[in-house]
Amino acid sequence: MKAGDMPLFILLASIFMVHTSSAVNNLCLYCDHVALPQDCTHVVRCPNQQNCYLEKFQTIEGRIYYKLGCKDVAQCSDVAIGRRKTLEINKRTNVERGNLALYNKRDLGDTSLCHACCSGQDVCNVEGLCGAPTLNKYGGTICFACSQEEQPDSCRQIRLCASGQGCVTREIVNQLSRRTLYQTGCGSRDQCLAEDDRTQCCTSDLCNNMIPCNVKLNARLGVPYVGSDGKVKFNCSILTSTLRTDVQYSVTWTIDGFPLKSKNGIALVSALSSHERVAIFDTINLQGNLNKMLRCKVEVTCSNNSKVEHVNSNGYWVGMKVSPQRIRHTIKQNVTVESTLPLISLDPLDKLSVGIQIESTGRNVTKCAYSFELHSSTGKYTTKIPVHITPHSFYKLSDTLIFQRLKNLNYPMFYDYSLPIVHIGPYVTSHDDFSSCKLEGNSVRVFDNSILGIPQGEYLYLILYRTNDVPTMEVEVKRQMNDMKMVTCGVFVKEGNDAVQIDVCEKTTSQFVPKVKYLSKSAERTIVVQQSDNGLRFVITVLTGSNITVDINRSYVDMNVTLSIINRDLNPPGGICGNETWSDIPGIGYVSSKGQKKSAFFQTWT
């Protein structure tokens, strides 16, 4: 065999690989003479129409090494295989010319075994090309790591951070030049939380190449007030310690967790500059959205278009509450009507009155009108109406107590607004006798007061309660894993053709807004949902008088669900609360003793 000839077995073993035919500013590893591609910690941003490139060599002594860099797309399909040759090339411009790093004279005679081009993701030339081992990050994150650069995206060094660490970008000031520079590297997530807004952390590979936009903020929704223009308004105050002048705040107004929209279907968003801290909401936009929870959601955008995770304010329930929601016969009672919003009246004395009537006859229960008064301690407007129902006052057991439209009202927010109704219970001595069932954690205290444990992870949906009485009522919960703990994250209540859902299944402890959604197609909502001022307790009352209380633990995003079911509805009780058993039938799933599958619950809504 002549000197310079390539052995046959090397020719047969040589491999040529091309993974793509186009490239746009690929970020590639750029090294020469590394034992493995993973040993390379230098990167380069290739020009357009160049791909990441890897070449595998073998020395005369049999040692394997790799070269990594950029190569023109057109040249990726025309790469010579054989011994290395001397190239007259300037190392500074070799990337622009589509070549690899400068060859050393000692490399002459080394044999090229494999060439490969790739693109489509950053540093793709580390991912097992030419038979090299696939990168194992051991649970860590690849981050840029430079002590100081003029811009974060100028950094050309990378490192693999330890498991549990993320990528960090810090804005620093050089002690000699007094210039603002940027430092990149690894850091624990606890350290990130303690840093100021000149530091930003992220958790994906090579994410720390942006100017920090770590603006820490909070949002607070104030109480409603009447402005100088006579309109009822809310203020959303942004609380932040940042001194940055290159940020913009976007305030989205939400109702029950969903963006509030104008009559034209456009989301109501207020834009604030870095110097502004208060967004103002005109409650005229609440028309058709009363008896719900109002919040403001604040997002921050820095000058480099990077965004900070949004925050939600506290909630404020807007509308009128009526209590109690069910009254009894033969007992003198007061029905309290409370407005959480200022009531603007046409009356010279700012008096706004309300009366009540019987739904089935339209007759007034009383000719008196009861005026709202401002309660100084709560800041809310209330009135109390005395009611005495005798056994022969009504013609139908299903009668309800409804309110006349508010008189002398002078604000569009309440136009076409109907106050919540009050149900009148039948004249039954045992009407207010309830049976209780409570789901808490992984156990249920059922109607007979015994404890039923729920196996971890076995049920994703539980039918807590079902009755075959008319109207049919069902209560179901949804469960999921959250930080290795099974929690209840959704409650579904159905009675007749009406259904409601309370859901926190996609929420986190930092971004926590329970969503209430009516699922029935009918416009009539006989199920009443009341929410506490802090937004963490819901009381769902159905037409028959039974109620379901949902208490949400924000720390675990978990729900405790308590059912208070009128005894006359327990004939017999079904579901877990009634000790109903379920069987796991192969190919079908869990089926109750009455033959109903769990998924059938959702299909019964009309």
TrEMBL record:
- SUPFAM superfamilies the UniProt entry points to: Snake toxin-like
Please give the superkingdom of this protein's source.
Eukaryota
Indicate the secretion signal residues. 1-23
Q: Which UniProt keywords apply?
A: Signal
The name on file for this protein is: Ig-like domain-containing protein
